[in-house]
Every structure is written in structure tokens, then in C-alpha cells.
Design goal:
Length: 103
């Protein structure tokens, strides 16, 4: 199965944020969408570019990188954005909540 959107998100975040850690997980299967959909993603990104930035500013940087995907089919993007120091302490991102629409 081709993961066109997922690969595009990875490429754009890698280019735009030069992360020391990046995880992009297609969570569409957890939602009420057709099999093989690429509409819901969880992004864990660790970048020095987040230093001295508030959470909303970090999210804006991520959104700027993937604005094309968000305008063309990506319905939800769970963003977990950390500085390297925060990630060293945290080490893991929280699990996404269960979708109420998934049967």
C-alpha cells in the first residue's frame, strides 16, 4: 500500500524543521474512514527550532510545513512538538485518544 501523504509529511517536516527525532503515524485506521485512508496523523517532532517557542508557535511551524496536505485530505493532525531537552526528559509522546466514531 502506497503511503503518499505520510511520506510527503515526513519529507516536508524533515526539510523544514531538521528534527533530531521524527515520528509520523497514520492513525486513520482508528477512525471511521475507508481502509487505506490517509486522513488522520500523529506527529512527534523534536527540533532545536522549537527552542524558546510557545506551544502554539511550534504548532504553527509544523502547520506551515504541511499546509498543502492539510488543505488536501488530511482531516486531523495530532502534534507533539518538543525541544531536544524536553524530549530527553519526556522520551515518549502520549497516546492518541480513541475515536468515538470508530465502531
Amino acid at each position: 500500500m502506497t503511503q503518499v501523504i505520510e511520506n510527503s509529511i515526513v519529507e516536508k517536516l524533515t526539510t523544514g524543521l531538521t528534527p533530531s527525532h521524527l515520528s509520523v503515524e497514520n492513525e486513520s485506521y482508528m477512525h471511521n474512514v475507508p481502509p487505506g485512508s490517509e486522513s488522520h496523523f500523529k506527529v512527534v517532532v523534536v527540533s532545536e527550532q522549537f527552542e524558546s517557542k510557545r506551544l502554539v508557535q511550534r504548532h504553527q511551524l509544523v502547520y506551515k510545513c504541511v499546509q498543502e496536505e492539510l488543505a488536501n485530505g488530511v482531516h486531523a493532525l495530532a502534534i507533539h512538538a518538543y525541544t531536544p531537552q524536553e524530549w530527553q526528559k519526556q522520551g515518549i509522546a502520549p497516546d492518541s485518544p480513541k475515536c468515538m466514531g470508530k465502531s
